[in-house]
Specification:
The complex is a heterotrimer of chains A (313), B (326) and C (321). With 313 residues, chain A is mostly helical. Chain A has 12 helices and no strands. The longest helix of chain A has 37 residues, at 75-111. With 326 residues, chain B is mainly alpha-helical. Chain B is globular and about 80 Å long. With 321 residues, chain C is an alpha/beta fold. Chain C has an 8-stranded mixed beta sheet, sandwiched between helices. In chain C, strands 2-1-4-5 form a 4-stranded antiparallel beta sheet. The radius of gyration of chain C is 20 Å and the shape is globular. Classes of the chains: A mainly alpha (313), B mainly alpha (326), C alpha/beta (321). The interface between A and B is large, with 49 and 64 residues.
């Protein structure tokens, strides 16, 4: 008496195969895999990030591929070590906000009524309060470090997921297989975990990916402001010190350009992964593609009115 | 018009939530912030300052409810306490100096980015071929993946430091006196070009993609099909039938994105030493200036809530369906 | 009686949808005519391809559709060879269409009056004042109060919206009006009112009607000639009396048996067993053979051609007499 499981659009394995077929998603997956590899293995391959290895603000050279920073430390080492921490926090926060968002959103969407009204007001308020100032005032009162950082990121980031997942839960709630389960007397907990959540898997995965992008960006922003532990080595603190040491005004571009590039590549890679996924769930885009190919093969361009394409029958 | 009043009520509630959060935060943290600060600034703060600090936090011996009411009274009068970093200036005064620059920077960037991005998105969906629909969206998304402030750093480095096309910071030249003269305004524009430009560039991709995707969906709808069947000129079909409707979700999204873009804009200000709230925020964080931090939080929150309500008003005008009672 | 050229002449029309699994043919070799002042009905189940046919005539089918074969002549003009400018000129002036769902067919952000006026301004009318006056006349014609010109679609009931769409369709006095399931989304009483209104307008203004519906009983009341559609193909075509009294194709016979007449007391209602075939993978030979009580071996392999059984009455069946 369960609803459609592992249908073409929601199964994880189907998703994996679709990713491999789609070029954008494959590029994204490769990028992410590369960075994860660097994060895991990298720190053992580079020197210590805090070691004073040379003259400050040296441009890239054979000895130091990305040069040295304002304190005379190796930029490459800091970048690689920072990869691990930044990715770890980003992914952990991304997962956490989706879990909390799912808890609140699905509860609101499933139970409706007063529960929904109350929860909706709560997450709508969190959605409208500007994230950065809120993060700052909360983080300012807590000891600096990854836990505080993670905490404020979660507080400012969960509401979006709650809203999205609530809509989805609402839509699923109205489907026949859920109604059947309700009539059969299944407990709400069972219905949610066995009927609703499995049918939201693809959305949940997409949300985790999107939230990780947000988490990495927001994390870097807060650290740039000086709210993280400035003695730690992360992408954000690298940028903080670069700004602090007036890198720009001394022309030391290597202290900030590589770090920013890494942030962008990871964010872009994750977005590609998600957009490749978008095409899978948006059949309209797929239909268009086949149609354009059909026209192009006959030397025709798409027209506004229905095209007349006669083949030799 | 119950819809617009409903929304106003929600924003008032959100403002109250922010105020209450501000009130409870210092009280929830371990220790007494006022005493801790006094210990830090020992010798530099007179007893009157100590009293002022305690007053700011409302940390008197009165019961919690009385403290809360006193606090609300202060805030509604515009009294956010005394700044520590800029002692003895009141927080409201410190914030006031920078507010207009932040609003100018973020507001202009938001409007310009939304306008250009939405227009490009509509055209991209309408054409569905050519550079507008193929590599431009991906490029803009890639650019948008960089932190705003990093783009600012790059722009500053390349266009300011290396090529010397734009000034290196601040809102206007130090030698000019503020006033509504042409030279002053032209100088302001010159100084604002890079900061506004970077925020626009960073956010353009988002608006473009959102409008393009909505537009594609709308172009498949029955009423657009009928508009074509009626023999209307293509420009009318695209603008009055398709774009007018595709715009609605983007406008709704604009309200939600406001707070987010503002955050990025604040960080951009830091890179350009722009004399707005962003710069004040850094000072506040560095000096543990809690009154200033909380003051900025409140002011920015109220600004965002107000802007959101304006967006709701715009929606009322754009979408006749919202004019009925909801 | 002089033989006049038909208003609309559709010849061997084929319309395909391009999917990533290949082409799906929604209209397969369809030919029929509509004479001046004639009401021709097209009956068929949902998914049989009728709406595709209607929209293909105007060439407003959205993207994955292509027209792969055939001819569509409107007053002698080749619609399939026309370019955008020509189509835009012909659309609405010579042929107009009313969609099934009026709620979706009307732009939510413009008033209904505005949607009629902009059509007129795009074609003939020079001034807004003249266009608005004409819009008022059209509203009166379909029984709508003139003050509703300034209403938005969401403020009107389903029946009123459909009347707006009809008024809109008649704005430029087209020679051919295509009605694509115009009353399916409405309740029975409103449906009757709308059809009565259309027939009155038809008698007054003399336009031809191509009336597409799945409701065969309605169609028999309303049309001069009827065509029956099954799985992208035309299986029977003839004058309404002939079809009602002596339908030749087993599918038509099945349809007639499954719809009650209001004054009917005779036979029991009998449905057609089975389900209509998917257009992606249609049966070989005659597409109706899996559900046909009279099917023989020949039906499984050979596609039947349209044969004439009485003047103007054709059917595609190997077994029919």
């Amino acid at each position: 008496m369960s609803g459609p499981r592992a249908t073409r659009a929601t199964g994880i394995t189907a998703w994996w195969h679709a990713i491999r077929r789609d070029r954008k998603a494959s590029i994204g997956a490769t990028l992410i895999a590369g960075f994860v590899l660097v994060g895991i293995v990298g720190p053992w391959l580079v020197g210590a990030p805090d070691a004073l290895v040379g003259v400050p603000l040296q441009s890239p050279s054979g000895a130091h591929w990305l040069g040295t920073n304002g304190q005379g430390q190796d930029v490459l080492a800091q970048l690689v070590v920072g990869t691990r921490v930044s990715l770890a926090i980003g992914f952990a926060v991304g997962l956490a906000v989706v879990l909390i968002g799912a808890l609140v959103g699905v509860t609101a969407g499933y139970f409706g009524g007063r529960v929904d009204a109350l929860l909706s007001v709560i997450f709508n308020v969190f959605l409208v309060l500007p994230g950065l100032p809120l993060a700052i005032v909360i983080a300012a009162y807590l000891p600096s470090g990854p836990l505080t950082l993670g905490f404020v990121l979660v507080v400012t980031g969960w509401a979006w997921n709650a809203r999205v997942l609530r809509s989805q839960a609402l839509a699923l709630r109205r489907r026949d297989f859920v109604a059947a389960a309700v009539v059969a007397g299944e407990s709400p907990f069972n219905i949610i975990t066995r009927e609703i959540l499995p049918n939201m898997m693809s959305l949940l995965v997409a949300q985790v990916i999107g939230s990780t992008v947000y988490a990495i960006g927001a994390q870097v922003g807060l650290e740039f402001l000086g709210l993280g532990d400035v003695s730690a080595f992360t992408w954000g603190t690298n940028l903080y010190w670069s700004q602090n040491d007036s890198a720009l005004l001394t022309g030391a571009w290597w202290t900030f350009v590589p770090t920013g590039l890494c942030v962008a590549l990871v964010g872009f890679g994750l977005t590609l992964l998600n957009s490749g996924f978008d095409e899978i769930t948006n059949p309209r885009l797929q239909m268009e593609r086949a149609w354009r190919a059909h026209l192009a093969a006959r030397g025709r361009t798409p027209t506004r009115s229905t095209p007349v394409v006669r083949d030799r029958d | 018009m119950p819809y617009i009043l409903q929304r106003l009520g929600f924003y008032v509630f959100a403002a109250w939530a922010a105020l209450t959060l501000n009130f409870f935060l210092p009280r929830l943290m371990p220790g007494d912030p006022a005493t801790a600060l006094f210990a830090r600034f020992r010798g530099r703060l007179a007893p009157e300052a100590m009293l002022a600090l305690r007053e700011t936090f409302g940390l008197t011996d009165a019961p919690l409810l009385v403290q809360y009411v006193t606090y609300l009274g202060h805030v509604l009068r515009g009294d956010f306490g005394i700044s520590i970093a800029y002692f003895p200036s009141p927080v409201s005064q410190v914030i006031g100096t920078g507010l207009v620059w932040t609003v100018f920077l973020a507001g202009t960037a938001l409007i310009v980015s939304f306008a250009i991005g939405t227009l490009l998105g509509a055209v991209a969906a309408w054409q569905r071929r050519g550079w507008l629909d193929t590599w431009l969206p991906s490029t803009l998304v890639f650019i948008g993946a960089f932190p705003y402030f990093w783009l600012a750093m790059l722009a500053l480095y390349v266009l300011g430091f290396t090529l010397r096309w734009f000034p290196l910071g601040h809102a206007y030249g130090d030698d000019l006196t503020p006033g509504f003269t042409f030279t002053f305004l032209a100088d302001v524009v010159r100084h604002a070009a890079l900061p506004i430009g970077t925020v626009v560039l960073a956010t353009l991709g988002g608006w473009l993609l959102s409008m393009r995707n909505t537009m594609i969906a709308v172009l498949g709808s029955d009423y657009v099909n009928l508009a074509r069947a009626k023999g209307l000129p293509p420009s009318q079909v695209m603008l009055r039938y398709a774009a007018r409707n595709a715009l609605l979700p983007s406008v709704t999204g604009f309200g939600m994105a406001l707070g987010f873009v503002l955050g990025g804009s604040l960080l951009t200000e830091i890179v350009f030493s722009y004399p707005g709230q962003g710069y004040l925020l850094v000072q506040a964080v560095r000096n543990q200036d809690y009154p200033l931090m909380q003051g900025i939080f409140l002011v920015i929150t109220l600004a965002v809530l107000g802007a959101n309500w304006l967006v709701d008003l715009a929606l009322l005008w754009l979408d006749p369906r919202t004019r009925e009672s909801s | 009686m002089t033989v006049t050229e038909p208003l609309l002449s559709v010849g061997d029309l084929c319309v395909d949808y391009v999917t990533d699994r290949g082409l799906v043919r929604a209209v397969d070799g369809v030919s029929f005519d509509v004479g001046r002042g004639e009401i021709v009905g097209i009956a068929g189940e949902s998914g049989s391809g009728k709406s595709t046919l209607a929209q293909a005539i105007l060439r407003i089918l959205p993207s994955p559709a292509v027209i792969s074969r055939g001819q569509v002549l409107l007053e002698g003009r080749d619609l399939l060879a026309a370019d955008e400018a020509e189509l835009r000129e012909l659309r609405w002036k010579r042929v107009a269409i009313v969609f099934q769902s009026a709620m979706d067919a009307l732009n939510p952000v413009l008033t209904v009056g505005e949607q009629i006026i902009d059509t007129m301004l795009a074609h003939d009318f020079a001034s807004r004042g003249a266009a608005r006056a004409r819009a008022g006349e059209l509203f009166a014609m379909v029984g709508m109060p003139p003050d509703r010109l300034d209403s938005y679609p969401h403020q009107l009931s389903g029946g009123m919206r459909q009347r707006v769409c009809i008024a809109l369709a008649l704005a430029l006095e087209p020679a051919l009006l295509i009605l694509d399931e115009p009353t399916t989304a409405l309740d029975v009483i409103v449906e009757q009112e709308i059809l009565v209104q259309i027939r009155a307008l038809h008698q007054r203004l003399g336009f031809s009607v191509l009336f597409i519906t799945h409701d065969l009983a309605r169609m028999l009341q309303f049309s001069d000639r009827v065509a029956v559609f099954y799985s992208a193909r035309l299986v029977e075509l003839g004058p309404v009396a002939g079809l009602r009294n002596s339908a030749r194709h087993p599918y038509t016979q099945g349809l007639l048996r499954s719809f009650p007449g209001i004054h009917d007391t005779g036979h029991d209602r009998v449905g057609i067993p089975g389900a209509p075939p998917s257009l992606e993978n249609p049966p070989a030979g005659c597409r109706f053979h899996p559900r046909c009580p009279l099917a023989i071996e020949r039906c499984r392999v050979e596609t039947p051609e349209l044969r004439e059984f009485a003047p103007g009455h054709v059917a595609a069946c190997h077994v029919a007499k």
